[in-house]
Design brief:
Elements: H1 19-25, E1 33-35, E2 41-43, H2 48-63
Helix pairs in contact: 1-2
Length: 67
């Protein structure tokens, strides 16, 4: 996994998202998960529903917010 250098140095997602953790916390995210050309799990960031589900999974996994 490559580190994104243009993100803030303390950004906990600078190495990408842990989709294994996120889909374990929010199984609905798996329906939006695809494989990138590099073979890594990702989502289509142009898909509003996918981004919304990713945000929901991040809130649940990292901040224990589930609504």
């Amino acid at each position: 996994m490559t580190t994104k250098t243009k993100l803030h140095s303390r950004n906990q997602h600078s190495r990408g998202y842990d989709f294994e953790l996120l889909t374990a916390q929010t199984p609905e995210l798996e329906a939006f998960t695809i494989q990138s050309l590099a073979g890594q799990a990702t989502i289509d960031f142009q898909d509003v529903q996918a981004v919304r589900m990713l945000n929901r999974a991040l809130l649940k996994a990292h901040y224990d917010i589930d609504f």
